[in-house]
UniProtKB/TrEMBL annotation:
<dbReference type="InterPro" id="IPR008928">
    <property type="entry name" value="6-hairpin_glycosidase_sf"/>
</dbReference>
<dbReference type="Pfam" id="PF03663">
    <property type="entry name" value="Glyco_hydro_76"/>
</dbReference>
<dbReference type="InterPro" id="IPR005198">
    <property type="entry name" value="Glyco_hydro_76"/>
</dbReference>
<dbReference type="InterPro" id="IPR053169">
    <property type="entry name" value="MUG_Protein"/>
</dbReference>
<dbReference type="InterPro" id="IPR014512">
    <property type="entry name" value="O_gly_hydro"/>
</dbReference>
<dbReference type="GO" id="GO:0005975">
    <property type="term" value="P:carbohydrate metabolic process"/>
</dbReference>
<protein>
    <recommendedName>
        <fullName>Fructose-bisphosphate aldolase</fullName>
    </recommendedName>
</protein>
Length: 365
């Protein structure tokens, strides 16, 4: 059931959003809005990290049902990202490059895509982002005064994975240090949720803590804990993952459905959390934890709500930014509905792929 639904949403997103880069052959990128303006069709506005999640969704789909056509699309999107980024793999934002690194590594594992060169550049830049200001952590971007979960979380997940797949052996310790820093500096003791980040003064002291709570911050912290639980006998990482799942269920879901965060970058937030909840649902039981069941329940309830509240549109179903509410269909590129955003559609696709993965793994057990 979930595999079929994910396939329908995949086809709809790709039909409406996937286009060549500047009409060049063997390239694809996701147009940032649908219906799209001329500027959007030419990829004038560049959302680097949205494209990383498009690549990640394609890898999800290839795991669900491999086919040569999608394999070609994965390679074309990868080429399109580098071309639109003016021949570079990196930019100044540590969170952006961590997301692309994760997507490229998964594409390599799924398709055998050669990724040594880009991952060497990305992980080298992430290693350089660490300083002792505010007790550790990497910056949000180069030359900034802000350190946050959105940068340290995906960087920790990537370095933990890369340590055993071609990176430096010390990358796992770097991932552990980043996650320990988030635990010390940004966990709300009242709820167990992660705050966004903190500003650092010139002397290295914390100047201000931004206590905004975002769903995707919980997702990347959870993902890092799950990665670090492998081979760990202390149980501390499993306990932190369990605490995060409980906190999400108590504070960031309504009747088990994850809350949205509007459009733009926020459109991706709930989908990212769903991805790492599904990962936790699969891997925590290996450590004797019962929290995987709660994580799976959040994913399946969210996917169910997103599917029920879909709207019929050209190319296939359109999903909304709040999965518990009916989606609305934009009439033109001037119609400023949040549903236009590629980020919103990727997030919905992501939660359906997460549900399909749980369905697939469950059928094998």
């Amino acid at each position: 059931m979930w595999a079929a639904r994910a396939a329908v949403v995949e086809r709809a997103v790709l039909t409406r959003h996937l286009r060549r880069v500047w009409a060049l052959p063997a390239t694809r990128l996701g147009v940032t809005g649908w219906p799209s303006s001329t500027r959007q069709r030419f990829h004038t506005h560049w959302n680097y990290w949205w494209q990383a999640h498009l690549l990640d969704c394609l890898v999800d789909a290839q795991h669900r049902q491999p086919n040569p056509g999608r394999s070609a699309t994965i390679h074309r999107v990868t080429r399109g990202i580098r071309l639109r980024n003016l021949g570079l793999w990196t930019n100044s934002y540590y969170d952006d490059i961590a997301w692309l690194g994760l997507a490229l590594l998964r594409a390599h594992q799924c398709e055998g895509m050669p990724v040594r060169a880009p991952l060497d550049r990305i992980t080298a830049q992430l290693r350089e982002g660490w300083t002792d200001h505010a007790g550790g952590g990497i910056w949000w971007r180069r030359g900034d005064t802000f350190k946050n979960v959105p940068a340290n979380g995906p960087a920790a997940v990537l370095l933990a994975r890369w340590a055993g797949l071609g990176g430096e052996r010390s990358d796992r310790q770097r991932a552990r240090s980043m996650t320990e820093w988030m635990e010390r500096a940004l966990v709300d003791p009242a709820t167990g949720l992660l705050w966004d980040g903190l500003y650092v003064g010139p002397d290295g002291a914390v100047r201000d803590i931004v206590k905004t709570v975002y769903t995707y911050c919980q997702g990347v912290f959870l993902g890092a804990c799950v990665e670090l639980a492998e081979g760990d006998t202390s149980g501390v990482w499993v306990a932190r993952a369990e605490r995060t799942i409980r906190a999400v269920s108590a504070h960031l879901a309504d009747d088990g459905v994850l809350r949205g965060r509007g459009g733009g970058d926020g459109g991706l937030f709930a989908g990212i959390l769903a991805r790492y909840l599904a990962l936790a649902a699969v891997r925590l039981p290996e450590h004797g934890s019962a929290a995987g069941e709660a994580a799976a329940g959040l994913v399946l309830a969210s996917a169910g709500a997103a599917w029920r509240n879909r709207a019929p549109a050209q190319g296939g179903p359109l999903l909304g930014p709040e999965w518990s509410r009916p989606a609305q269909v934009p009439r033109s590129w001037r119609h400023r509905l949040i549903e236009r955003d590629l980020s919103v559609q990727l997030s919905g696709w992501m939660v359906l792929e997460a549900a399909a993965m749980l369905e697939r793994i469950g059928s094998r057990s």
